[in-house]
């Protein structure tokens, strides 16, 4: 198969996946028990008003036609109006997404670096007390509820020890003095030239980033250890040992390059899970990202906002997975 055919096949698969995502998102909204018309007109509106709004929303049309109009609106960047905020959903998501992206990206960087290093050391000293301690630590990361651990961290490090700032992205004293330019707290405070505001933004990020990094570290460490141990039993490792190479040299120069495809996949899955699973973390730390936005919309029964947020997270999931597949093919000749 030629390179052009592979690219065309990949694009077709991507478009088909996105279309399926749009169909699922639309179906969840169409068959939702929440009446979108009642959300707008209220319970005491007349039947004529109810039918008029229903017609304006296009809900009196057949479902295939509704889906077609939904696709046309998406093509024009129209995700509807959020009943909870009264603003376009796209505008709400554009203001909330940078907060989630900043939180998840910093947590991914921390979790990936620590997770890969811990996984390699566990493979090097497999069966040792260090290995047992790290595996126990990571097991707790996959077992303890994230909201409980977040509340515990707030109670200990913020309320009692006062080592970090509390919920939110900035203290009130900086909230209205820093001009939002990019939507990323660290970048905006850095551009403002206010070092105190930058340190405050870092302090607010410390606890939620550490919490999300801990949960990504747990899976990355375990899978890195397993992949390293699996490679250590292959013949080329025996040859390297016969030539006198040390264990750490073998792990760093031979094993890690051969498991980079696995590491890329694991890290990408951790990233997507943080983007879609930061709901509880953002709620506990009052972080104004998509997770908190979806939680507010869910309690308000705002199906339009829920559809928009779900669609954005789903698109991120699909794009990150496809980008990871591309990177694996580019970096691993065995896959090609």
Automatic annotation (TrEMBL):
<comment type="similarity">
    <text>Belongs to the binding-protein-dependent transport system permease family.</text>
</comment>
<dbReference type="InterPro" id="IPR035906">
    <property type="entry name" value="MetI-like_sf"/>
</dbReference>
<protein>
    <submittedName>
        <fullName>Peptide/nickel transport system permease protein</fullName>
    </submittedName>
</protein>
<feature type="transmembrane region" description="Helical">
    <location>
        <begin position="305"/>
        <end position="328"/>
    </location>
</feature>
<keyword id="KW-0813">Transport</keyword>
<dbReference type="GO" id="GO:0071916">
    <property type="term" value="F:dipeptide transmembrane transporter activity"/>
</dbReference>
<feature type="transmembrane region" description="Helical">
    <location>
        <begin position="103"/>
        <end position="127"/>
    </location>
</feature>
<dbReference type="GO" id="GO:0005886">
    <property type="term" value="C:plasma membrane"/>
</dbReference>
<feature type="domain" description="ABC transmembrane type-1">
    <location>
        <begin position="97"/>
        <end position="328"/>
    </location>
</feature>
<keyword id="KW-1003">Cell membrane</keyword>
<dbReference type="InterPro" id="IPR045621">
    <property type="entry name" value="BPD_transp_1_N"/>
</dbReference>
<keyword id="KW-0997">Cell inner membrane</keyword>
<feature type="transmembrane region" description="Helical">
    <location>
        <begin position="205"/>
        <end position="224"/>
    </location>
</feature>
<feature type="transmembrane region" description="Helical">
    <location>
        <begin position="139"/>
        <end position="159"/>
    </location>
</feature>
<keyword id="KW-0812">Transmembrane</keyword>
<dbReference type="Pfam" id="PF00528">
    <property type="entry name" value="BPD_transp_1"/>
</dbReference>
<keyword id="KW-0472">Membrane</keyword>
<dbReference type="InterPro" id="IPR000515">
    <property type="entry name" value="MetI-like"/>
</dbReference>
<keyword id="KW-1133">Transmembrane helix</keyword>
<dbReference type="Pfam" id="PF19300">
    <property type="entry name" value="BPD_transp_1_N"/>
</dbReference>
<feature type="transmembrane region" description="Helical">
    <location>
        <begin position="263"/>
        <end position="285"/>
    </location>
</feature>
């Amino acid at each position: 198969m030629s390179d052009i055919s592979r690219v065309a096949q990949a694009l077709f698969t991507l478009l088909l996946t996105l279309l399926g995502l749009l169909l699922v998102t639309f179906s969840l909204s169409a068959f939702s028990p929440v009446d979108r018309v009642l959300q707008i007109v209220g319970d005491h509106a007349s039947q004529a008003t109810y039918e008029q709004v229903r017609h304006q929303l296009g809900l009196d049309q057949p479902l295939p036609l509704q889906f077609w109009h939904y696709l046309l609106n998406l093509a024009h960047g129209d995700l509807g109006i959020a009943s909870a905020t009264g603003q376009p959903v796209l505008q709400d998501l554009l203001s909330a997404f940078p907060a989630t992206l900043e939180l998840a990206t910093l947590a991914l960087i921390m979790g990936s670096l620590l997770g890969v290093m811990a996984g390699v050391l566990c493979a090097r000293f497999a069966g040792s007390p260090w290995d047992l301690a790290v595996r126990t630590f990571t097991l707790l990361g996959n077992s303890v509820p994230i909201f409980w651990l977040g509340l515990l961290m707030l109670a200990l490090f913020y309320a009692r020890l006062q080592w970090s700032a509390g919920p939110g992205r900035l203290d009130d004293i900086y909230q209205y003095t820093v001009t939002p330019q990019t939507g990323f707290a660290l970048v905006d405070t850095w551009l403002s030239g206010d070092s105190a505001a930058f340190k405050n933004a870092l302090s607010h990020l410390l606890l939620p980033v550490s919490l999300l990094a801990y949960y990504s570290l747990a899976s990355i460490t375990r899978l890195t250890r397993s992949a390293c141990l699996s490679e250590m039993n292959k013949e080329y490792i025996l040859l390297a040992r016969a030539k006198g190479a040390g264990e750490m040299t073998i792990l760093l120069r031979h094993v890690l390059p051969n498991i980079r495809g696995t590491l890329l996949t694991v890290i990408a899955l951790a990233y997507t899970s943080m983007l879609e699973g930061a709901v509880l973390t953002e709620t506990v730390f009052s972080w104004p990202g998509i997770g908190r936005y979806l939680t507010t919309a869910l309690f308000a029964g705002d199906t339009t906002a829920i559809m928009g947020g779900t669609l954005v997270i789903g698109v991120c999931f699909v794009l990150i997975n496809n980008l990871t597949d591309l990177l694996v093919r580019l970096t691993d000749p065995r896959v090609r």
